[in-house]
């Protein structure tokens, strides 16, 4: 088998460490970077360096930011009475792209997962409780992922916030539009039935 340049092998190894990138995909990406014009390859390298040097967590909500505050926390037009709790910045972006929520956010930077060794003290829960304590929120929306860890995290936070005068809600769940009931899993059907609404 022919020897591959050590620089290429190293690039493949680094790309292989990215989530969702297997060895074959890493090899395809590495050889693609060798084929493109060097300005395109260097632009990628520069953008990786820049994001690592300039992006940090917002001091208020822990979203990604290039300054002390993210664009959402520094926007005075947001609804200051609502706070949505999400697990990761990418969850915040998904909600923003829906275009219907205009309140503020709090990013936990994970979820409670005892089997993975992640406890409440490793998340931004203390900062969240302090925000609710001193803020003027009337509603706190649990927008954690609808799985065991997400639901457990939401329950833990709900218990901590129960003493504060805020309405605690969670995202609605149920059958997606266009789906067929016979092929829908039982957890989704159970959520849809328990969260049913009047016509």
Can you walk me through this structure?
The chain is an alpha/beta fold and 199 residues long. Helices cover 42% and strands 13% of the residues. The strands form 2 sheets. A 4-stranded parallel sheet has the order 4-3-5-6. Strands 1-2 form a two-stranded antiparallel sheet. Helix 1 crosses helix 2. It is globular.
Give descriptors for this structure.
199 residues, alpha/beta, Helicase, Ruva Protein, domain 3, Dna Topoisomerase Vi A Subunit, Chain: A, domain 2, 2 domains, 4-stranded parallel sheet, two-stranded antiparallel ribbon, 6 strands
Biggest sheet: strands side by side, in what order? 4-3-5-6
Shape: globular
Oligomer: single chain
CATH topology label of the largest domain:
Dna Topoisomerase Vi A Subunit, Chain: A, domain 2
Please identify the top-level CATH class of the largest domain: Alpha Beta
Order of helices and strands: HHHEEEHEHEHEH
Number of domains: 2
Number of helices: 7
SS-derived structural category: alpha/beta
How large is the radius of gyration? 22 Å
What characterizes the major β-sheet?
A: 4 strands, parallel
**Fraction of helical residues:** 40-55%
| Strand percentage | 5-15%
- The number of E-state strands comes to 6
- Overall pLDDT, averaged? 91
Shape-level CATH architecture of the largest domain: 3-Layer(aba) Sandwich
Uncertain runs are none
Give the terminus-to-terminus CA distance: 68 Å
């Amino acid at each position: 088998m022919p020897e591959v340049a050590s620089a290429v092998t190293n690039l493949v190894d680094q790309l292989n460490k990215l989530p969702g990138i297997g060895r074959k995909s890493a090899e395809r990406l590495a050889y693609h970077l060798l084929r493109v014009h060097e300005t395109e390859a260097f632009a990628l390298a520069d953008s990786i360096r820049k994001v690592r040097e300039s992006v940090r967590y917002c001091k208020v909500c822990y979203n990604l930011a290039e300054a002390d505050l993210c664009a959402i926390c520094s926007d005075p037009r947001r609804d200051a009475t609502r706070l949505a709790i999400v697990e990761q910045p990418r969850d915040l972006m998904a909600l923003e792209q829906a275009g219907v929520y205009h309140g503020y956010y709090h990013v936990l930077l994970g979820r409670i997962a005892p089997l993975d060794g992640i406890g409440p003290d490793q998340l931004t829960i203390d900062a969240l409780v302090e925000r609710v304590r001193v803020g003027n929120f009337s509603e706190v929306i649990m927008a954690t992922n609808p799985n065991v860890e997400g639901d457990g995290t939401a329950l833990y936070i709900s218990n901590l916030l129960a003493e504060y005068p805020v309405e605690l809600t969670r995202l609605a769940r149920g059958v997606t539009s266009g789906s067929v009931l016979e092929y829908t899993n039982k957890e989704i059907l159970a959520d849809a039935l328990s969260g049913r609404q009047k016509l």
